């Protein structure tokens, strides 16, 4: 345990965050996400909600200033939209966590297939026990100024 650092942030996760460089991506994904087949490095947090992990991680994580959106959510599948599925509650929660820490940052979207591609290209995939649908976000690391 460390002072002022959430107990959710394990040594393995802190090492990953520290080892990442400018432009590297990290994916925080829900329990349904195929992490093992889409991640170079996979850490599992089965009893943790995705928004709780994001809240703990983001104060330590400099978001990139270069892309328009340095935080990206998995957009709903067109079939879910066509079926009238409501916007996932986590989208607003994730966006608020990002904007509360980085007021100048907005959260963008990736299609499901693009999100999978970005996850495969990410430095690490952090799988949570999140059961709410579309509980997936990718962050792009910036530089410490």
Overall description:
With 145 residues, this protein is an alpha/beta fold. Helices cover 34% and strands 18% of the residues. The radius of gyration is 14 Å and the shape is globular.
Q: Outline of this structure?
A:
By secondary structure, the chain is α/β, with parallel strands linked by helices. It has helices at 11-19, 35-38, 50-57, 78-82, 89-101, 112-121; strands at residues 25-29, 42-45, 71-74, 107-110, 124-128, 137-140.
Walk me through the topology.
Blueprint: H1 11-19, E1 25-29, H2 35-38, E2 42-45, H3 50-57, E3 71-74, H4 78-82, H5 89-101, E4 107-110, H6 112-121, E5 124-128, E6 137-140
Parallel strand pairs: 1-5, 2-5, 3-4
Antiparallel strand pairs: 1-6, 3-6
Features:
145 residues, 6 helices, 6-stranded mixed sheet, 34% helix, globular, alpha/beta, single chain
Low-confidence stretches: none
Shape: globular
Helix content: 25-40%
User: Structural class per helix/strand content?
Assistant: alpha/beta
Biggest β-sheet strands, sense, barrel: 6 strands, mixed
